[in-house]
Amino acid sequence: MYKENILVVEDDVDINNLITKTLEKQNYKVTQAFSGSEALLQLSISEFKLMLLDLMLPGMSGEEIISKIRDEKEIPIIVISAKTSLKDKVNVLNIGADDYITKPFESEEIIARINSQLRRYRKYEISTQSNEIYKFKNLILEEETRKVKVKGEEIHLTGHEFDILSILIKNPDKVYSRESLYEQVWKNGYYGEDNSVNVHISNIRKKIKSVSQDEDYIKTVWGIGFKLNNN
Length: 231
Prior knowledge:
The protein is α/β, with parallel strands linked by helices. The chain is built from eight helices and twelve strands. The strands form three sheets. Strands 2-1-3-4-5 form a five-stranded parallel sheet, with helices on both faces. Strands 6-7-8-9 form a four-stranded antiparallel sheet, with helices on one face. The protein has a three-stranded antiparallel sheet with strand order 10-12-11.
């Protein structure tokens, strides 16, 4: 019996087949796509629980694919790319990717990261019936629907961005370290050089600022971490 359905988008046939075989051994159902247009077609006709996405694709880049689908779908996106610079990683996370793996990669790492993303996604799908609503200043966060509004206007957050903001808004006076946020959201160990939390906090701030420029919602407590800004 198959587990979740995963879309693998990679133009290199050998790499695509390698990833596919690795996932099928774990009983995942896999659909292959070899270009950006093929990926968008598959997303329009089938439901997927997760997408593995290369960036350098013929016709349409991985970055363009993320931008096109992120406002419409909550599907977790794990980028697998030969681009290794911090700038590339930060850019992709900012536009909506949930995780980033650099080539060459180990099969065990892909499986571990997929499992981590799907655990979080399952919690989203099996959310409780009572929709808890949290309010802070002009921001409203709806737990079950995973919607965030600022001054009545909805802003679109990625899965990890929503999870971080949800943690902060439930205890607005508490300061959370980067390590604590990382371990609660990504569900695995924190490594000091990992910049994921900073990137996602920055992205949340930008999205809030696009609606409410006159208020700062997230405060950096230097040397410790982050909290909501009560000032």
